[in-house]
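user: At home tonight, take the chain set out below, taking as long as you need, and be ready to discuss the fold:
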Amino acid sequence: MIRVANAPVSYGAFELTVGVLPNVPGPEEVLDAIAEAGYAGTELGPRGYLGEDRALRDRLESRGLALAGGFVPIRFGEDANFRELGATLDILIGFGAKPVLADAGPRSVVDWGRLTDGVARSVELARARGLEPTFHHHMGSRVQTPGEIERLLDLTDIGLLLDTGHLAAAGGDAVRSLRDWRDRIDHVHVKDVRLDILRTTADWDDAWRRGVFCELGAGDVDMESFFAELNGYSGWLVVEQDWIPGPGDDAAEAAAAQARNRRWLAEHVGL
């Protein structure tokens, strides 16, 4: 069974914006928008943003939402912050949510031995708490391209989060990757991407700010073929449309976009 979730990053709330930008919406506003749009759950966002312990549980339960996962960027093999990972894992335990691990970058030559040692240590910490983590390939990190994802899968036993937007931006094909990695995929982020924006800038952060991630069906990912191939998958499918609020931007526009994304899934692929 597929359950459809959303995430605070779709409303401009994530590690690089919360506490930094003045017009990031608060947790109540974001959770209200997610529930009203018809999503069944949410990912955690930055630790503490949605609250912790009873405050987090009350906020979710009052809106009928589940916690799908929690994103933890880690500088694997360098100054890996296992304390931050441990704190996030402690939150996720009570919800049975998926720890989503990602390399924090920056993009550089990969020391695969040190990186995979860091991944293995993170997996050990998660499993010791009864949680099964997944790895999120990500633009701007050291595990970005299809070849780098393949290498990570060969050298570790961690599950894979397949992100359609990040994969397309890195030159991959979501349908082919789903076929190739199906036995390792245990979490899905579905997002669309405008490759024309990438072609006009060499800077990923600039592309991000210019709206490289767009509404479902408005970009270059072959969404309908992807969902046809996804048949048989069981787990969370998280809609993400990473958004960085600019000066004067209104979070209500982001909320409306996420409602349209939810309708797109219902109308085009029956979810």
In short: Residues 251-269 form the longest helix (19 residues). The domain at 41-228 is CATH 3.20.20.150 (TIM Barrel). The two ends are 10 Å apart (CA to CA).
